[in-house]
Amino acid sequence: MAELVTFDPDHDLDEVLTAFHRDGAVIIRGLMGVELQERVAQELEPWVSATPAGRDDFVGRLTTRTGALVARSPACRELVMHETVLDLARRFLLQFSNKIQLHLTQVINITPGQGTQPLHQDRLAWGGYVPDGIEPQFNTMWALTDFTNENGATRIVPGSPHWDKDRRATDDEKTQAVMDAGSVLLYSGSVTHGGGENRSSHDRTGINITYCLSWLRTEENNYLSCPPDIAKDLDPGLQELLGYTMGNYALGYYSDPHGMNAKTDVLAPEYALGRSPRGDEKLLGN
Question: N or C: which end of the chain has fewer CB within 10 A?
């Protein structure tokens, strides 16, 4: 039976990244402290309770998916900005882009009776158009409850990012991300995975926060989930992850639809938040 490697929070990140490249997924135990777990759970509970179940078998008819976590939960912002995760995400993705951005924030709550989700690769969100050899995405699943074999712990096929496209996993090549609450599963956009079957009497609750290359369309439309009137009060580093910065030269500028007296009609996104760009970012010019 395949297994995932589990690391302690203070483990050498070079070794964590080596295992991540090899297997496509690793677990770091206890990365979210108890106090933060409590705040996250308290802030999210009303939103999760109000979320309807999924509309089809892929998202899960007995699974709820609650988004817009940056706008709704200050505690979740701490998870998005977690120093260890961001360090690993950047080291994994920045070989393919000069920046990363927030791709998705979502509570995935699998309730009793939910069957297994079809195994898949998240990189297919871009329709298969991201070329082989480019890793577009770095994913996290933070355990807000214990993840067990019985309650639907995420199924993973270690090593599958390196397989031929037509290869299908046998039962002994699959495993589940069993971990205690407060731990985090890290997995790439190329690893084969899927939600597990919940055969227990309790919900399995995880927080799916993912990052992607700055030149790709994001799964969650962060400008709608966290619009400028909310984003303007956030930490500048979080604003940039949400996409309120130029992704590269000529990627992400805007024109104020109401302004007629600006010095330029080509503005960096930071101006929508009431501040100037950081660093030496340039606007389009002749």
Answer: C
3-state class of 88 per DSSP?
Answer: helix
Q: Is residue 131, in this structure, part of any structural domain at all?
A: yes
pLDDT tens readout for residues 40-64 = 999 999 999 999 999 999 999 999 9
Helix, coil or strand: residue 69: helix
pLDDT at 281: 47
Those residues whose C-beta lies under 8 Å from the C-beta of residue 5, and which sit 6 or more positions away, are 19, 23, 26, 27
Using DSSP bridges, classify how beta strands 25-28 and 6-7 pair: parallel, antiparallel or unpaired. parallel
Q: What would the pLDDT profile of 1-35 be if each residue is shown by its tens digit?
A: 789 999 999 999 999 999 999 999 999 999 999 99
Give me the phi and psi of 79, to 5 degrees please: -70, -45
Q: Give which of 191, 209, 213 is closest to 20, Cα–Cα.
A: 191
Q: Which helix (H) or strand (E) holds 141?
A: strand 137-143
Residue-range definition of the domain harbouring residue 281: 250-286
What's the CA gap between 73 and 192, in Å, rounded?
Answer: 30
One domain for residues 87 and 159:
yes
Global pTM reads 0.94
Residue 228 lies in a domain: no
- Distance from C-alpha of 154 to C-alpha of 82, rounded to nearest angstrom: 21
User: What are the tokens at 22?
Assistant: 């090899």
Total domain count, the chain? 2
